[in-house]
Amino acid sequence: xxxxxxxxxxxxxxxxxxxxxxxxxxxxxxxxxxxxxxxxxxxxxxxxxxxxxxxxxxxxxxxxxxxxxxxxxxxxxxxxxxxxxxxxxxxxxxxxxxxxxxxxxxxxxxxxxxxxxxxxxxxxxxxxxxxxxxxxxxxxxxxxxxxxxxxxxxxxxxxxxxxxxxxxxxxxxxxxxxxxxxxxxxxxxxxxxxxxxxxxxxxxxxxxxxxxxxxxxxxxxxxxxxxxxxxxxxxxxxxxxxxxxxxxxxxxxxxxxxxxxxxxxxxxxxxxxxxxxxxxxxxxxxxxxxxxxxxxxxxxxxxxxxxxxxxxxxxxxxxxxxxxxxxxxxxxxxxxxxxxxxxxxxxxxxxxxxxxxxxxxxxxxxx
Length: 367
What we know:
This protein is α+β, with helices and mostly antiparallel strands and 367 residues long. 60% of the residues lie in helices and 16% in strands. A 7-stranded mixed β-sheet has the order 7-8-4-5-6-3-9, with helices on one face. A two-stranded antiparallel sheet has the order 1-2. Strand 7 (129-135) and strand 8 (143-149) form a beta hairpin. Residues 1-5 have low confidence and may be disordered.
């Protein structure tokens, strides 16, 4: 029954070939289908590092803001004949869907989605997307590629004839530290440290320093004794101050008892003074009213006097008509006075003329 099944012989070669084929199929399925990436589309990008990439191996993770989005596919050393230098070329792969996108591109065709993703990458580069090498493990010294945004940094691209989109990089923290250390004058720093050590040694061995330290110790002892004396004195002063405060409180209470009646008297006096002022105001009000009326009358009289003086000044002017008329009147009065004088003399010689009238001959005599 070992070589026959149901009356038929079994070929061992066929059984062995079937088992080997099954193992191969299972292995290929695990390799290509087990990870779920066999039929998945991915994008590849290229970067160039001027520094060392020791510790970066194929399969190393590629992160964006700390989240894994791909892995390194190839690492090559390339020669740049333009400046006679060597560069490290790193090609990494990002599976589709590793970075979720928002907007209308998710509803477009795959080729449109790829173009949109490349456009988004260029936009991120303008916003500061840069790649750096970071330490993955301190124990093993393995590196990874970390992407983040560094706005304001320079975009350094080699622009070689590559089939992949190039992403800009920045020196790693270790490279930046190494460049900083290279700029430090180690010999100068060592010389300065040596000189400082010698100076400290001379200072420690100086006898003057020892004497100063002894003086400082004596001063500290004196300060300690002074502090103890002050502590005792402060206790006594505190007791005296408490007694003084108690006496002051009693004096304030006594003063407060005396001030209250005084304040009452002052208030009454102020009320009496207020009443006196009110009565005086009532009495003075008519006088003030009469004074105002008198002042108004005086002002009016002064105004009339001023008008009279103006008129008199006008009348006394030698060019005024009034003065001229007065002059004529005076002349007439003068002639009238002369005539009266002649009449008086005539009547004195001939009083009878009052009854008889003036005689012609008499008139001739007068002539």
